[in-house]
């Protein structure tokens, strides 16, 4: 029993670091004239940003077994940043919020915990241990106003 707890400690440490260092940003969508347009809502397939640090594009959602959200994150800032994994909270049909499954992220080799150089992007998955996602709320920080992506 003791060995089992010891084996999980590295995963717990990774989860704590991921949540503590999580960043992410959201909601300035691009208008027809390609200038940022403030928005607190978005749709699948359209890039959004809020504070102009990260741009998020939710590419697809698959809840066949567990819910997987395919997302592209672009660093719009002039410095290297970590996107993290706690920027996106999924809400079920009852309105309960769920953070992504950090252990699943690490086991599948997520790149969301890596440094993202200025003006570069990455595409990766977020995994949620829930049967259905009603909407996703994206935030740069816990204090920032979020963007809602409806499904």
Residues in helices, as a percent range: 10-25%
State Rg: 15 Å
What's the count of strands?
Answer: 10
Give the total of domains: 1
**CATH class category name:** Mainly Beta
Q: How far apart are the termini? A: 42 Å
Overview of this structure, please?
The structure is a single chain. By secondary structure, this protein is an alpha+beta fold. It has a single domain (2-150), classed as Immunoglobulin-like, CATH 2.60.40.1240. 17% of the residues lie in helices and 32% in strands. The protein is globular. It starts with a helix and ends with a strand. This is DUF4352 domain-containing protein. It comes from Paractinoplanes lichenicola.
Which helices and strands, and how do they pair?
Blueprint: H1 2-20, E1 28-30, E2 36-38, E3 41-42, E4 54-62, E5 67-75, E6 88-91, E7 97-99, H2 102-107, E8 121-128, E9 135-138, E10 147-150
Parallel strand pairs: 3-10
Antiparallel strand pairs: 1-2, 4-5, 5-8, 6-7, 6-9, 9-10
List keywords for this structure.
151 residues; alpha+beta; Immunoglobulin-like; 3-stranded antiparallel sheet; 17% helix; DUF4352 domain-containing protein
Would you kindly provide a brief summary of this structure?
The protein is of the alpha+beta class and 151 residues long. It contains 2 helices and 10 strands.
């Amino acid at each position: 029993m003791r060995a089992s707890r010891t084996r999980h400690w590295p995963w717990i440490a990774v989860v704590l670091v991921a949540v503590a260092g999580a960043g992410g940003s959201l909601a300035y969508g691009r208008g027809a004239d390609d200038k940022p347009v403030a928005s607190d809502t978005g749709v699948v397939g359209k890039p959004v940003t809020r504070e102009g640090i990260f741009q998020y594009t939710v590419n697809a959602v698959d809840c066949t077994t567990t819910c997987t959200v395919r997302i592209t994150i672009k660093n719009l800032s002039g410095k290297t940043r970590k996107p993290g994994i706690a920027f996106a909270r999924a809400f079920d049909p009852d309105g309960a919020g769920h953070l992504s499954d950090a252990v699943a992220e690490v086991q599948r080799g997520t790149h969301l915990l890596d440094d993202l150089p200025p003006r570069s992007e990455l595409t990766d998955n977020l995994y949620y241990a829930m049967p259905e996602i009603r909407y996703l709320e994206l935030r740069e920080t816990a204090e920032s106003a979020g963007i809602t992506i409806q499904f």
